[in-house]
Fold this sequence. Notes:
Strand content: 25-35%
Shape: globular
CATH architecture of the largest domain: Roll
Structural class: alpha+beta
CATH topology of the largest domain: Pnp Oxidase, Chain A
Distance between the termini: 40 Å
CATH class of the largest domain: Mainly Beta
Number of helices: 12
Helix content: 10-25%
CATH superfamily of the largest domain: Electron Transport, Fmn-binding Protein, Chain A
Number of domains: 2
Largest sheet: 9 strands, antiparallel
Number of strands: 23
Radius of gyration: 22 Å
Amino acid sequence: MQLRDFILLAEQRQWVEHVDTPVPPDEGMARLMHRAGDKILFFRSRWNGYRVIAGVCASRRYFALAFGIDERELCAYLVKALESPADPPIVTSAPCQEVVEEEVDLEALPIVRHTPHDGGPYVTAGIAVIHDPARGVLNAAFHRLMRLDRRRFAARLVEGRHTHTVWANSREDVPVAICIGAPLSVQLAAAMSPAGDLPELHIAHALAPTPLVRCLGSDLLVPAESEIILEGRITHELVDEGPFIDLTGTFDIVRKQPVIEIDRITRRRDPIYQALLPGGPEHRTLMGMPREPTIFAAVNEVCECLNVWIPPGGASWLHAVVQIRKRHLEDGRHAGEAAFRGHGSLKHVVVVDEDINPFDMQEVEWAIATRVQADRDIIIWQDQPSSSLDPSAKHIPGQKARTAKMAVDATIPWDDERGPRHPEAFQRFRYE
């Protein structure tokens, strides 16, 4: 589903707030995005011909609408797409190439400066598509881009991730295409970081029909229904990138990062620029929800997993709740261990039974209060590989961050393989 088609559906449900007065792409626009919470914000007054949309990925219900499914089915739907990726069709004519701009002027785009402390205006909803010659696949991933001038960005490439690895192993410039305003299927797939050689754009097509088109200046394939494509190259020139608000709501440090030079812009005739508030609901949803199916799959290898939620209280990255159907004495412990294999940046996980709603933190906390003994049901692993997003972790430049990790088995305690001695003592009374 094209982004603009999704906007029409969301407008029909009154999920979109319109802003018709001119708002420049500076902190004022960011403040309005913050106040909107998880509501979609549509700036309809054009900035150099561009309208601006924000918040389209801020809620799980938006993805459910785009995929035509119930919100509670999202995790299983993502698992299925990961297990059964589909080859997207390649078209020769595409909406994203209706207008071709060989004279590049990035300053004409409504790129938002979110805070006075930012290193510059940032593209935050840009999906970078590159080709990995070693593995023979396309990779699509989000990368924040700090505008330097009319033709160049500083790109944050996380060390060890796919784009950084390809760039680090290449002596030449790496061709790249930045997609802005891509279909929601592409945005979710690009955030999923699948294992192995699984191309994100094939996952996107499994989620919803996602035709591709070849770029004008390279052999890269991009989502044909995107609003804007920036064709360019990742160079080996390094500049300071940052500071910038990250997922946790804290400022990320300044690093030397590569420069991307843009050679061409292609776009729709009436383009919609997508903005994404750093550290906001949209950022958190795109970071957390794509890790739920990988945790689900890992837990399902050791016991029956029913659902997974990465809650916003853990910055939609560091915490998870795993719901299982307990059949064996150690299922809760094994599920907790497996969750960390499913999401390497996870810091704390709580495992609950099928009678606990994993999306209701009051119920989860109730399970911890009534079913957990700290000396028996809390497992701690010291000095583990961690997320760079955790400010409390141990950070050494050039090395993986380190932290302690914790699993809480909040399932009903069993005496042995036969189950609990008095199961009725652990049941929660519910009024009809």
